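Each record in this resource describes a single protein on a pair of labelled lines. The shape at a given residue is found from the number at the same position. The record below illustrates this layout:

***
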Amino acid sequence: MQFEVWAPLTGHVAMRLDGATYDMTRDPDRDGWWTAEAPAADGSRYGFLLDGEGPRPDPRGRRLPDGPDGLSAVVDFDALAPRRTPTPAPPPRTGLQDAVLYELHIGTFTPEGTFDAAAARLGHLTALGVTHVELMPVCSFAGRHGWGYDGVAPWAVHEPYGGPAGLARFTAAAHEAGLGVVLDVVHNHLGPSGNHLPAFGPYFTDTHHTPWGSAVNLDAAGSDEVRGYLLGSALAWLRDYGIDGLRLDAVHALADDRALTFLEELSAAVDDLAADTGRPLFLIAESDRCDPRTTTPRAVGGLGLHAQWNDDFHHALHCALTGESHAYYADFAAAPLAALAKTMTRAFFHDGTWSSFRGRTHGRPVDRRRTPAHRFLGYSQTHDQIGNRALGDRLSASLSPGLLACAATVTLTGPFVPMLFMGEEWGARTPWQYFTDHPDPELAEAVRSGRRREFAAHGWKAEEVPDPQDPATRDRSRLDWSEPEQAVHARLLDWYRTLIALRRTHPDLRDPDLAAVRVAHDEERRWLTFRRGEVRVIVNLSAEPVTIALGRNGVRVLAAWEPLEHPGPDGRIHVPGESAAVLAP
């Protein structure tokens, strides 16, 4: 078996494999690369000695049985659980318009916190009607429990979740159930604990500085190989595990001044892989820029990603539901229904407008003639928007079931690709809190004190902010699977199922034309209506009933959270407080 490693600044490289040591030789055709041939099999443990120091795990190692500081293990992908032909995901060229995504965290989706336990719950998701499972990061990180955004080995799978074999089994089970799989990957930084990459080469650069320190090297000397490292990792998830798409974390934090950006390279590589394999593959960006170029095709000057999260939609909806106005919500709070209406028809609220949170103008307009609505994901809750709150409180902690139903209605019948966060479909009462398991005591204390300091600026006392390192914080964040059987939760779950089914059976609810969306609202009386072709949606956020003039009669009620009479001859309809309805001719 051939082993190779990029270590351009090292004078001598050796490999420790199953207790034996093998000298490696420089590759004459690839600068900085070292190679060696040695007998190995699935599970063989190995690492690299750099100028006699080590051994360190392989930067491209596919398995770390003992965690980021242990040796790598060889993975024979042909020996993994049978991987059935992946279920086709929505084609990247025609968009994700038929998709409904479900974001989940393997470690807290079930009490066991493993791939196999999550696979056992896939029946719940198929009954719900979602089309894709979006996994939060599963790369190896220090400790046992965490969100996954401190990963240090972009090619390896976190062992406590079940390692490579567990991920392969989960993906196969999802495909057999008719579900696509999306994986959240992080390229903008790596975690501080267990990160061995700097010892191998210039994976990081001081040319740029980020909130996490030195930037991942995408544009300085040696960046060709670093880009190749990240590109190879991304393609490996899609190729070797049958993953259908990737969610790219915080692409606005990628420091990259090259003419051909890393994101364009990645987009082209994924499209090429899709063409080679005959499988539709896609990339979904998280971006703070409100820049339509993120999802504009490369052929016309864009980055070529297939979709992006739309936080502006979330912020407007959140303000309309809760009345909150702190931090970035301040930009949306003055007239939240107007802000929501703008996002539903123009995607971005900030499209060159003043942002008080940033202290400057922000964003640029979306060309609605050329940009389909399914370039954007819409959601009322995500891991970030819940977990970045001091207590990790979901909407269900403060909103009535009726308002939760309203949030679901706007999200699932609106113009964007809907995404749910695990448990929201039944109004889970369990919080989703920020939790870590850093083995390094100094790092653990820095994270603990840093989070408390962050929220102290907003009036929180230190003892009120959950300790990320306390195992109880993670335990509180696990879903309670007895809740969906309780009446109040079961009713909301049925509402989600109904709305998803309507989205599937009514093409108007998947129409990609943003310009065709028609929205009316009353800020003072707190109601909003919108049209998607022949389908009309009514949402009353007020506790008081309202009467709304539809302008026509002869419509039927497809679904209603509260009992609803048909419009009278004058086309006026009476809507109960904190309720929603979907109508059609």
Remarks:
- Residues 487-505 form the longest helix (19 residues).
